[in-house]
Amino acid sequence: MHAAIASRVGEVYLWLDQQLWPSRCNRCGRCCDLERFGHRLFVCTVEWIYHLYHNPQPVDIQGHGRCPYNHSGLCTIYDHRFAGCRIFQCDKDMDTQAMIYETTLAKFKQLCIAYNIPYRYVDLFDALNGVLSDIGP
Ligand code: SF4
Ligand code: SF4
Description:
Elements: H1 2-19, H2 34-37, E1 42-44, H3 45-54, E2 70-71, E3 74-75, H4 83-87, H5 94-114, E4 121-123, H6 124-128
Helix pairs in contact: 1-3, 1-5
Bound molecules: iron/sulfur cluster (SF4) (2 copies).
One iron/sulfur cluster (SF4) binds near residues 25, 27, 28, 30 and 88.
């Protein structure tokens, strides 16, 4: 079942990338320093299943600062990064991003209903600390 969910989440990411094209993000990694940038990154249950399906290896969590997937400024899971990472673009209109984000979460909620998975929406660091361990693959 997790492969099917991962595939459906991948379709949502594809849709998302199409909404946000063209992107002027130069992947500088500045916003991946979440604490310094004033960001929190949230993930929901189906995204977490997708994440663990594609990135099963454990990651070293160094507090609530920089995203642990960012090494030397580069995202090590770029092709499989989270919805929040895809949507945020520092040079784009925030209202449009908020609208796209709401639509994305609605799609994820629909997937939760379709696969009978509880919808939960948690901070990335809490997820990495095991708060969603009951729903992972
Ligand atoms: S959204 Fe902006 S700050 Fe974040 S990686 Fe892209 S260019 Fe850098
Ligand atoms: S997953 Fe990648 S793009 Fe998203 S915050 Fe972490 S390093 Fe940045």
